Amino acid sequence: MPRRFDSHLTNVGDVGYDVSKRAILDNFKLVTNSVKGDGVHPECTSCLRSNRSCQWPTDSSDAASNQTNRANNDAASQLRPIPELISTSDPELALRDPRVFYLFRHYKDNLASWYDLNDHHRHFTDIVPVKARYSPLLLSAILAFSAISLLSSSISGPWADQANFYLLESVEILLEVTRNIEAAVSDGEVLAAICLLRSYEIISASTSINLDSLSSLARASFWNILRENITVALIERQKLMVELPDELVPKDLDSDDDYANAITILLGQVINQCFGEDTSSVDRLLYLENRLEVWKASIPHSFTPIVNHDSVGHYQRPFPFMGTLHGWHAASIQYYQTAMIILALARPKFQTNKTTDNMRYVTELTRNLENRSSEICALALSSESQAVWVNSFGPIAFCGSWLRDVRKLRVTIRGVEHWGSRTGWPTSKIIKCLRETSADDGSH
């Protein structure tokens, strides 16, 4: 039977669930299973499976014309929630899909004018759609923006899945094209796509989504985007642009990923509470700390790292080896320790009684922060997983500066440099922070 994570917790009441897919261009690679169309025409795979006649928006037949007109005039009512979504890798092929063409037309007829307010050339209305016919990036951005717009306007249809699917495609393409950032920016298509995705971000911040109602791909997308939001928030010391109500935390913890998702939400809640303008609620801080401790006490033994303090030859390791069975084990413990560090730093601001022995208090706090930071770095340094390292960059960026041992700092810097070069992830800001700490001889 699955364990109840909230069995010792108090229900804080109903809170609206606003999901925002932030950090579009924060250089964190999303993993998606893009399902490409098979290119069969006039009968596509989806229609063959459903035993229905396949009609295409570009067909000249009366039936195709009537179907397209009905789709355009009757919103999404004529569109079925077909699970297979068409990749934009071949824009012309993708646009033959009625669902894709509907989203494309919705953008051109209803959304593009937003961007042409002060532009008599109407670039976003007349030029962007033309370019999108051969640009996978522009087309995926248009489709993502159009889908989230329809979702937020309460028009029925499978828009949540489509919004997530094409957002992921946009981000993956952006990660690829921005390797040559100067050429990408000068071309104009990248900046146009960023404009569209920025609108996606703004609209999705106020879009109510029931996570349980989403497909498995959409839920996986949500967790990926949330983790990347957390990475950015930790590096920039800023709130997430997403509300994370308590009921979003998984309650019936059955598998390891349930525990991993639960601590992800809890860390996000701590970030929003402590990095925001109003962090004055002592009760809320204590509540979050209690939830973290309940989570820690409830995790399976499989999450416990395999620790080895032995030296290698004459070389004394600055960190112990802390191996884990799976990457999510390392990431979950790192998130827990990061959340506890943030709460420890926030707590002194709200103490009602002054500490009688400031020196002792500061010493204990510093030791606590260093021990937790050491575990975060040791888990990363003990892993050979790119996924673990990319997910570690945020916790290391926020917590690494609390390492007082210069050797630990230097080993951590080498690790970040190594994995930054292997993954292409921009780590210069993290390395700069750690080097400044090392130059200060670890003092705080």
Task: Outline the structure in words.
- 57% of the residues lie in helices and 2% in strands.
- The chain has 17 helices and 4 strands.
- The protein has helices spanning 45-50, 62-73, 91-95, 98-111, 123-132, 136-152, 159-177, 181-187, 189-204, 216-236, 256-274, 282-298, 327-346, 358-381, 386-399, 406-423, 428-439, and strands spanning 3-4, 252-253, 306-308, 321-323.
- A two-stranded antiparallel ribbon has the order 1-2. The chain has a two-stranded antiparallel sheet with strand order 3-4.
- Helix 6 (136-152) packs antiparallel against helix 7.
- The longest helix has 24 residues, at 358-381.
Number of strands: 4
Compute the average pLDDT.
76
Main sheet summary: 2 strands, antiparallel
Helix content: 55-70%
Shape: elongated
| Structural class based on helices, strands and sheet pairing | mainly alpha
H/I helix tally: 17
Percent of sequence in beta strands: under 5%
- How far apart are the termini? 47 Å
Order of helices and strands: EHHHHHHHHHHEHHEEHHHHH
Give the spatial strand order of the biggest sheet: 1-2
Low-confidence stretches: 7-82
Radius of gyration: 25 Å
Salient structural properties:
57% helix, mainly alpha, DNA-binding transcription factor activity, Zn(2)-C6 fungal-type domain-containing protein, Fun_TF, nucleus, 444 residues, elongated, 4 strands, 17 helices, transcription cis-regulatory region binding, single chain
